Each structure stands twice: as structure tokens, then as C-alpha cells.
Amino acid sequence: MSATTKTVTVAWGVLLASAVLEAVWATALDASHGFTVLADTIVFVVALSLSMLGLGYAAKHIPIGTAYAIWTGVGAALTVAWAMLTGTESASLLKALFLVGIIGCAIGLKLVGHDDGGRPAPDEPTD
Questions:
Q1: Tell me: the pLDDT tens digits for 11-22?
Q2: Nearest 5°: CA angle at 45, between 42 and 51?
Q3: Domain limits, the chain
Q4: Has this prediction a pTM greater than 0.85?
Q5: Which of 7, 67, 82, 94 is spaced 20 to 30 Å from 102 by Cα?
Q6: Distance, CA of 125 to CA of 29 (rounded, Å)
């Protein structure tokens, strides 16, 4: 595995972890009740900061349109799925179907890849 391939693989892992953190901060935002519950507010701030840092790192190696679509799509799907599992939001077959669709689209974006025109990543040395 080349260094570039390994870097992009790590970027995808960071992107998915950041999407999970997006679901964490969105859930903590709701639980903070307008930032009046200190523990949930702290979870919100920490998860939001780490999620944004991860998205920023991933966007250095994955096109921003793809990275952002996956970050928001996976994060939103996880947020809704968690809310349905915990009973804070009603569950339905249609909601589950649409969530599967969002995740399917994210997988599709990953599988399609991207054409960078052979240009090196910004932090990659040129020959």
C-alpha cells in the first residue's frame, strides 16, 4: 500500500469517526436544553470540536463535496437512528428505509471515488 493510499484510507476512517461525533454533538445539543445542562453542554462542545477537526483533516485528502456529503449524511442518519432507538423520536418502516437510503448514498460516494486529475494532495511532495 502506497503512502498516498494509506493517507486516504486514514482520511476515510477519520471522516467516519467525525460523522459519529456529529451524531454525538447533535444528541448532546438536544440534551443540553439550550446549554442549561452543563455536562451535556461540555459533551456538545468537545464532540463538535473533534468532529470539525476530523472533517477538516479528511477534506485535505477527500474532495470537500464528497467529504461533507458523507459527514452530514452519516451523521444525520446516526442521529435519527439513535433518537428512534432511545424513543425520543418515533420509529417507522419508512424512516428506516430512508435512513438506509442515506447510508447507501454515502457508500456509493465512497465507491465512485474521485478523479483528482493526478494532482498530489496539498501536503504531498511533488516530483
A1: 999 999 999 999
A2: 135
A3: 3-112
A4: no
A5: 7
A6: 41
